[in-house]
Amino acid sequence: MKVYKTVRGLQAHITKLKSKKKRIGYVPTLGALHNGHMSLIRQANANCDITVCSIFVNPTQFNETSDLDKYPRTFEADSTLLKENECDILFFPGPKQIYPPGLDTTIALDFEGLDTVMEGAFRPGHFDGVAQVVKRLLDIVKPHELIMGQKDFQQVAIVRHMMTHFKIKTKLVVSPTIRESHGLAMSSRNERLSKKLRQDAAIIHETLQWIKDNQQKYKKVVTLEKKALAMLSIPRFKPEYVSIIDGITLQSVNDIKKAKYVAVCTAVWAGKVRLIDNIILKGD
Ligand code: AMP
Q1: Cβ(35)–Cβ(178) under 8 Å?
Q2: How far is the CA of 27 from the centre of ligand 1 (A)?
Q3: Is there a contact between 207 and 197 (Cβ–Cβ < 8 Å)?
Q4: Crossing angle of helices 7-19/126-141, nearest 10°?
């Protein structure tokens, strides 16, 4: 695996590969890698000739500097995992490579309501930072495919919107959520949970699955949402939202039967750790 810390080094290598007609798959990450990330690497390996992964803890998508400072940085373990999973290129830039002084990377984009609900409502400015960094990284890597996880459902919608707006030709591939054996979606944040909280956090996927299994039983969507909020309110757990939404617009649906593509998304505090998850209820 080749490791590049500079845009110039990475681009020189990618240009050579492209001249040999190699298809490039790209997986952007914040590091602290786990098997969920590796599923995206394996997907890129399956779809493309060359897999590029980046590790960049993007300051512009963190609302609080304390959260940014606390973000785990585990470069050695990450690069071992990437090598084991046959990643070809690791891009590991510092902030000056991504945001060089004098280069305006901000993008003032109207997300048409995608950014005001769910995560957007609780983390103001977060998606502006996500769209900004993904745009900049795509401008640098110019991959044929961008592989992202369904785990961050709203992030995928934001990135899709940004790519459409800028007419970016890269194909966006959404890869399914990888879970621990008891159902908890894998996340670098899971490491911060005590053993007990980690076990109890299985309630999150159980609740989403309960909604999926019972979606026909209740006339009103809000009834399902309220019941789910109650199910998630076990000791030391505090749900922020359970939202049954249209999978494209991310706005609430009133009647699941009438909608084509429906998902349910949630954010839950488990002690001091904020976890998100979702499942598709219908369509796609
Ligand atoms: P992050 O480093 O948390 O920004 O994640 C990088 C990419 O990995 C994003 O596209 C995430 O959606 C994806 N990802 C994170 N956790 C999982 C998981 N459990 N299963 C599948 N993809 C995931």
Answers
A1: yes
A2: 9
A3: no
A4: 50
Banded model confidence at residue 65, pLDDT cuts 50, 70, 90: confident
Is 37 a catalytic site residue?
Answer: yes
**CA 259 to chain CA centroid, nearest Å:** 24
pLDDT tens figures, 92-122: 999 999 999 999 999 989 999 999 999 999 9
Yes or no: say if 2 and 90 are a contact pair by the CB < 8 Å rule.
yes
Which is the closest atom of ligand 1 to the Cα of 179?
19
Identify the DSSP state of 6: S
Taking only Cα atoms into account, the Rg of the chain, rounded to an integer number of angstroms, comes to 19
Reported in sequence order, the residue ranges of the chain that DSSP labels E, i.e. its strands, are 2-4, 24-29, 50-55, 89-91, 145-149, 171-175, 237-246, 262-270, 273-282
- Residue bearing tokens 């980046």: 54
Question: Six-digit token pair at 183?
Answer: 């159902």
What ligand 1 atom has the least distance to the C-alpha of 33? 2
Ligand 1 environment, Cβ below 6 A: 29-30, 36-37, 39-40, 148-149, 151-152, 175, 177-178, 185-187
Of the CA atoms within 13 Å of residue 121, those in its CB half-sphere come to 11
What SS3 class is residue 150? Answer: coil
| Nearest protein CA to atom 18 of ligand 1, as residue | 36
113-166, pLDDT tens digit by residue? 999 999 999 999 999 999 999 999 999 999 999 999 999 999 999 999 999 999
Place of tokens 């999978």: 247
How much distance in Å is there from the Cα of 37 to the middle of ligand 1? 5
Q: Which of 13, 34, 37, 182 is catalytic?
A: 37
Beta bridge partners of 91: 4, 54
DSSP 249: T
Compute CA distances 32 → 71, 100, 131, whole Å.
Answer: 8, 25, 21
